[in-house]
Amino acid sequence: MAVRSRARALLEAPLRALASGAVSPALWEADAATATAPAHLPPAFAPSAEEAAARPYSEVPGPRQLPLLGNAWRFLPLIGHYSIEKLDEVMWQLHRDYGPVVKVGGLVGHADLLFVFDGDAIERVFRREEALPHRPSMPSLHHYKQVLRKDFFGDVPGVIGIHGRRWDEFRAQIQHIMLQPSTARAYIEPLDAIATEFVDRLHRIRDENNEMPGDFMGELYRWTLESMVRVALDARLGCLGGGQRALAEDAAPRRMIHAIQQFFGHVAHVELRLPVWRVLSTRAWRNYIGALDTFRELCMTLCEEAMERVRAEGAAQRPESEMPVVERVLRRTGDPKVAAVMAFDMLLVGIDTTSVAAASTLYQLARNPDKQQRLAREVAAVLPDAAAPLDANALAQLPYLKACIKETLRMYPVIIGNGRSLQSEAIIGGYRIPKGTHVIFPHLVVSNLERYFPEPRRFLPERWLRAGAGAGAEAGAEGCPVAHKAHPFVSLPFGFGRRMCLGRRFAEIELQLLLAKVVRRYNVEFHYGDLEYKIHPTYIPANPLKFRLEERP
Predict the structure, then answer these.
(1) Where does the signal sequence lie (predicted)?
(2) Which of 243, 323, 349, 366 suits a disulfide with 327, CB 3.0-4.6 Å?
């Protein structure tokens, strides 16, 4: 019996991984304002026209379930034709085969998955979300925090891999600090200095062909780690000094980068394949836990140093606007654990995601030289001296830069999907969907559909500009054949609502500063064909990023 239970658990887990992005409660009540009540029902209980017309859940299109096996077999190696490691292709195939609303049911003990490829339906689910989102994502990280290392995290689990009351309490303590525009703006000067150091480093690490090393993603990790530690802990690590191998193998920054790479490298194995780790300590599981432990220990050392500085400066009175994030959290909550776990979560997920976004944007600019030249002219107009710093006023005058980032994240979102887990019955796409269904919003697919973005595979930052926006003849969207107001719920690279990325404002500023500095100094080229992507579990480039950087005159 125990063997059968374990086998069942192993079968279910890859399917849970599919739903790991579809994770918080949504309540969708029908609008009864236009309903006509049957004579035998009081008005308060009358079904709306939408409810009356809704078709049963059994009629939702989707792959046919087999007796006993359901659809679970489709995701298994060898016999299945849906690859867990290629969820992007699975999403595209489901949309092609079944249309805007697709049910994948019969998943052997797991909630059904409902893929929604319609912007209006996505908006309705998001907007009717309950106050306390439920997000059962990344069970391995949840197990790490709440079981294996509960002695450390205790009742302060953070926001990554957690849901429910404790998630809500933790977020409430830090969201006001993290999401204030003034908080992020206060870091423009130090983040600009880090971006400048990185651009200088690019000159040193170019080869004889002026190309970047194949592991350029590792270089971006250095930049993001340096930036994030400055934001979260008010510290500098020295990641960007010296040559390509300046950091010793045992140096803390290199160990942190290696731990992050190991963590994300094994997440796909742990989360997207059979969860042998639930019953056996596999090599992948040990490496995964080892990476998290190493990262946590190094992060906590930095946290302790930061908090010691805060305590040493305790007598000094200064306005909150001048305090680093760690000090604001510490002074507002009075709990060092909250500040430490905030930094852990912020660094764990922020370094990889921001690095990937930067890499993808540089690639798009390299493959679209006309767009890159327009951006270079915009930056040069704001920054005549390439060595001068950028400030908040300068960033406000770079609408095309922001449009380039938005267009990149539309085409290649770092997180390919989002979603909600229904906490009550809902009507979606004309179907009555039961409570407990995991509703997945595959933004990678939806944001690349012709109906929402004409010529979706063309890199057209102009589609995000308002007519006449900003200053200068090139600032607006005039002349762009596909410029239109985009559906606000089709491309959501930072999520929506209470589950929106807490580090969004910092990530945007980091990207803007870095890309502006790189394009101001270099012409970026890429001569190795089309870039392929893979699930890591972020959506990352699979090819070496051997960008060629030529100095601008």
Answers:
(1) none
(2) 323
Distance CA 137, CA 144 (A): 13
What is the count of structural domains for the chain? Answer: 1
Task: Assign residue 342 the CATH number of its domain.
Answer: 1.10.630.10
Structural domain boundaries enclosing 236: 165-367+525-551
Asked if the structure places residue 172 within a domain, the reply is yes
Kindly report the pTM of this predicted structure. Answer: 0.87
Residue 541: inside a domain: yes
- One digit per residue, pLDDT tens: the chain, 553 residues? 544 444 444 444 444 444 444 333 332 233 333 333 344 444 444 567 877 889 999 999 999 999 888 888 888 888 888 987 899 999 999 999 999 999 999 877 678 899 999 999 999 988 876 666 665 567 888 889 989 999 999 888 888 877 777 888 888 888 888 888 888 999 999 999 999 999 999 999 999 999 999 999 999 999 999 999 999 998 999 999 765 445 677 788 899 999 998 998 888 778 766 677 888 888 989 999 999 999 999 999 999 998 888 888 765 667 777 778 888 888 888 888 998 999 999 999 899 999 999 999 999 999 999 999 999 999 999 999 999 999 999 999 999 999 999 999 999 999 999 888 888 889 999 999 998 888 999 999 999 999 999 999 999 999 999 876 544 445 555 556 566 688 999 999 999 888 888 899 999 999 999 999 999 999 999 999 999 999 888 999 999 999 999 999 8
Element (H or E) spanning 236, and its range? Answer: none
d(CA 371, CA 388) in angstroms, rounded, equals: 23
Domain membership flag for residue 235: yes
Supply the DSSP symbol for 452: T
Q: Tell me if 86 is assigned to some domain.
A: no
